Every structure is written in C-alpha cells, then in structure tokens.
C-alpha cells in the first residue's frame, strides 16, 4: 500500500495558480523594471531626486507597469486564471499609487 505523501495532487500550474502569486509578482516587477530603466537611461541623475520630486518618479513607475502586461499574458498562456487576477489587482494598486504621487 502506498502512503498518502506519494499521491500526486496536481501539476505545478495548479499549485502556483493563486491570487497571492499574481499580486506578489505584480508588485515586485514594476519597481524592478523602473530601476533597470533608471540605471540604463537616467544613471547620471541622483536617485535622491526621484524621491524628492515625485513628478520624476511617477513616469518611471508607469513604465515599470508595462512589465505587468507581460506577466499577465504569461499567466494567460499558462491558463493560470487566479494569478492573472492577482496581476490585475496589483496593477490597480500601482495605478492608485501613481495617481496619488501625481496629484497629492
């Protein structure tokens, strides 16, 4: 008789298809992409200026949000619906943050 631990409970897609994964990756990817854009394009400007003047930081974060588009389509291709919804939630949160930075 086999033990309960050897029962296959599903594929990796089924195990990782969760809201938390989409939200977590959706909140991590935009700042990483914004940092890469800063390092490549704006490395001559002091990083402190981006936090001192939010009008400089907001466009970088918006460009970083494009990474969520690729993440969304990856999850769609893998048929990971819950993770897709998590990416949408994180994108909305980042959009609210950008709006708050721009207008408040």
The ordered string of helix (H) and strand (E) elements is: HHHHHH
Alpha plus pi helix count: 6
Helicity level? over 70%
Q: Uncertain runs with pLDDT below 50, 5 residues or more?
A: none
How many beta-strand segments?
Answer: 0
The structural domain count equals: 1
Kindly report the oligomeric state of this protein. Answer: single chain
* Overall pLDDT: 88
The main sheet comes to: none
Using the CA coordinates, give the radius of gyration: 18 Å
Q: What report would you give on this structure?
A:
With 104 residues, the protein is an all-alpha fold. Helices cover 77% and strands 0% of the residues. Helix 4 (54-64) packs antiparallel against helix 6 and helix 5 runs antiparallel to helix 6.
For this entry, give a set of tags.
104 residues; mainly alpha; 6 helices; 77% helix
Summarize the structure.
The protein is 77% helix and 0% strand. It has 104 residues and is mainly α.
SSE inventory with pairings:
Layout: H1 12-16, H2 19-41, H3 47-52, H4 54-64, H5 66-77, H6 81-103
Helix pairs in contact: 2-4, 2-5, 2-6, 4-6, 5-6
